[in-house]
Specification:
about 210 residues; two-stranded antiparallel sheet; 9 strands; binds glycinamide ribonucleotide
């Protein structure tokens, strides 16, 4: 069966991209990466893609007069590459409502908190400061508002006494690298129906949605 084509949008290190590259290396995984697009040149995520033999392109937001023109260039490039699902993997730009709406339920984002808690930046320190006992990551379908949209997969990790921003971020990142491929697997295999803010998953197992 044909594999679903992913377009991965990155801005930096690309460790979540690497998790997707590794997942796609399994021929039974239902998706493959058609293109890695970065809004920044020279980032480590681009090197990871090149090493894996995946086409890359840099589209710098600085070359465009405003978000609509930048997003139109992204859109054109993704569609020309035959992309069917867009994966935001540490892509640190807000997308316009027009872009988001035109892709329907086919854009995924990973965020390092248990949404809807701690949207935005500085999530790890804010989670520690809140006194919460758990933090984690969320993979969700993207809607125009930042870090909002139907939640597909979450993984929780404990916040330990003595945790720093860095130690918590590292623990969450390990969970991110399992959660993102799992979310892509579910969406790409057509197992997800979106109903308002809920994702209904055909034949879920407890492990596919709540693992950590
Ligand atoms: C990840 O922790 C991801 O969850 C976060 O940026 C990091 C990217 O790391 N994304 C956001 O904060 C988006 N709101 P990576 O480049 O190594 O995948």
């Amino acid at each position: 069966m044909a594999r679903v084509k992913l377009g991965c949008l990155i801005s930096g290190r690309g460790s979540n991209l690497q998790a997707l590259i590794d997942a796609c290396a399994d021929p039974t995984f239902p998706a493959e990466i058609a293109l890695v697009l970065s809004n920044k040149p020279g980032v480590m995520g681009l090197e990871r893609a090149v090493k894996a033999g995946i086409p890359t392109q840099v589209i710098s937001h600085k070359d465009f007069d405003g978000r609509p023109a930048f997003d139109a260039a992204l859109d054109q490039t993704l569609r020309a590459a035959g992309v069917e699902i867009v994966c935001l993997a540490g892509f640190m730009r807000l997308l316009t409502p027009e872009f988001v709406t035109s892709w329907g339920d086919k854009i995924l984002n990973i965020h390092p908190s248990l949404l809807p808690a701690f949207k935005g930046l500085d999530t790890h320190q804010r989670a520690i400061d809140s006194g919460a006992r758990f933090a984690g990551c969320t993979v969700h379908i993207v809607r125009p508002a930042m870090d909002e949209g139907p939640i597909l997969v979450q993984a929780a990790v404990p916040i330990l006494d003595g945790d720093t921003e860095d130690s918590l971020a590292a623990r969450i990142l390990t969970a991110e690298h399992k959660a993102y491929p799992e979310a892509v697997r579910l969406l790409a295999s057509g197992k997800v129906t979106v109903e308002g803010l809920r994702c209904r998953i055909d034949a879920p197992t407890d492990e596919t949605i709540h693992f950590n």
